[in-house]
Automatic annotation (TrEMBL):
It is found in: Membrane. Belongs to the monovalent cation:proton antiporter 2 (CPA2) transporter (TC 2.A.37) family. CHX (TC 2.A.37.4) subfamily. This is Cation/H+ exchanger domain-containing protein. One of its GO terms (cellular component) is membrane. Pfam families: CHX17_2nd, CHX17_C, Na_H_Exchanger. PANTHER family: CATION/H + ANTIPORTER, CATION_H+ EXCHANGER DOMAIN-CONTAINING PROTEIN. Residues 483-606 form the Cation/H(+) antiporter central domain. The chain crosses the membrane at residues 62-79, 99-116, 128-146, 166-184, 196-218, 224-245, 266-295, 315-336, 343-363. It comes from the Eukaryota.
Amino acid sequence: MNSSEIELELVCQGITNERSRGIFYGDNPLDHTTPTVLAQLSLSSLLSALTQYILTPLGESAFISMLLVGFFLGPSIWGDKHSFLSKVYSAKSINVSSTFAFFGCILYLFLLGIKMDLGMVKRAGRKAVVIGFFTFIFPITLNLIVAEILTTNMEMDQYLHDRVPYIAVFQSVTTFHVIVCLVTDLKLINSELGQLAISSSMISGTCSWSLAIFFLFIDRDETHDLIALILITAILLVMIIFFLLRPIMIWMTRKTSEGKQIKETYVTSIFIMLLGCAFLSEVFGHHVLFGAVTLGMAVPHGPPLGSALVNKIESFVSSILLPSYFVFSVAGVNIFSIHLKTVTVVSIFGVSSFIGKVLGSMLPALYFKIPPSEAFSLGLVMSCQGVSDVLLIQHGRFLSLLNTQIYSTMVINMLFLSGTFTPIIKLLHDPSKRYESCNKRTIQHTSLHMELRILACIYHQDSTPCIIRLLELTNPTAKTPMCCYAVHLVQLTGSLVPHLVHHEPGKSVKFHAKDSSHIINAFRLYEQECNGNVVVNLFTSISPFSTIHEEVCRLAAEKSTSLVIIPFHKQWRPHGIKNIVEARSVNRHILDMAPCSVGILVDRGTLSASKNNNLYEIGVLFAHGRDDREALAYGLRMAKHSKAALTVIHLIDLARTSQDYHEMELDSDIITEYKIESAGKRRHSYRQESVNDCVELIRLITSVENSFDLILVGRSYRSRSPLFEALTEWSEFPELGFIGRHPNPIRFPVSGFCACGAATNFWSLRQD
């Protein structure tokens, strides 16, 4: 059989029931449609989940995991006609299984379309536009040059000779969907590398796919009139979607009140639109996915509509239906049909497109003063391939532009290159490393006459009064000014691209998360009341909580803040305890990565309450070490406030065996500074308390916990003291430090170790 011939497999199939009566009645369930499809979906999704669980720590993306499962379940691996897999994935079930696979792919790309932000093309800066353009032009130019050289100088059969231009174009394509899914899988979406790659891929992807679509139509047997008719119907379908269906969806969004869920009838209507658009795509001769992706891009992304659609079906589509599509795609791969000449040609184009994409990304990145390692990582990200590339070459095979062996070689090449590059990207680019060499900024080393910069994070608007009162007690004045960067942290839903929105006075912004307006108004009012002593900059960070800490740390580094305030994940409210589960992981990542001191604020309600003429009682539990010195340094700033009464309880650790005289000297210096500052001021006090073990420490804290509105403690201690080590045995919240977690007013709200009711705010500081 020549390589240009089409391979057909004829299957004779009798008429059987869709359902099996069961093995006890003598039926083989795999001879019936329903149990066969269920077995296929179960097997592909289970193996994909297991493979991803194994490969994710190695830096591999979900695409590689599903592609490997496709190879494992495909005929190229098992091949035995009598094996179990040959019965599950039998030739007679191919029509049903392929329909399910494509339906899953339709829903998946519809969701990707919803998550796309077309406004990124408008907002892309000069850097992203230049990098995106060169990432498109370099590989396609290099591949076409290589194609000319190969067709002129290499001996090959006529079919392969005629298909070389298509291989060159298909290998050089860059896709936005692939890049954004890759940086999401690698948790780089909030890094500068991830943001630049996403913006650049919007430009290069638009150019690449325009060229690929053009190549799908040229040199085909159809007449020019037929091709023109197909293009006209494509434009007509786009106009129907954007000028008829999109206004309807915008109307649905407007009819949904803020904070309310979208009506089920609206969701059902959009799914009907999806099926109709996919059907029209097939009727007009386009790919079935064309209408689905276009409709997805027309859906207003984000809440309430886009988020609702994504939340409804994303897990089911990504985890159950999509793996079956990869099994179907790789089922067309036949390793034994591949000839060495085909492998050589495809591999040459794979390498040349890789070189073109890396150079096209690196050279302009280096021109824009991006570090070489970052520029190389960017090139690797832009050279990776994914599900959109599989769809492209699969459609090329459907149109007879590629045969089985070329298709098989390109899929294997895709697996090898992307599977190799993704772990290298993760190894080269670790966002946390950029802060390791930074000089950690602290409150202690910020002069009182310098501007104190604080970054305050907010998960929910209920935390706003407490944080504002804390900033007020920090005592900003004309001689000790303060700059506050308040960031509302919002979970990203219904979109792939994160946003950091700067709310500048007098300027309206497109993105408004729920409760953001209340937070903005509260901080604006606080800024006005401070009469110029405080400058407030307001942001909303809409990002996945798995990577939002990178946004916070980058902002802290760029703004040179001395302190990051993060609310504790358990928040006490009049109606009960609100537990923001995802916030705990975010807080712990910020503690690990932040380029400055970090304070965890536990809001128990008393700090935000009005005191009128009464003083705010603030306590500092000081043992030793740099974190306790940082807590006391913050207390010294508060002590200058006219409504703050500061009490320092100096814990003398009698169980401490090792002595660091340099540390002891530093501790003594800041204690002396406080004594001088509080001399003659009756509202401030200092006392020493000797403790032998953790029992005495707990007893001491229990005796004073009802005396304060706010308690400041350090988080960690370098010395190996039995006094603190014994507390780790009951550790529940290690992010709060030794004293912060045992005892604390969080773990035991009604026991003898805690403050009565909700009478204490607890503050845990970490200084690096």
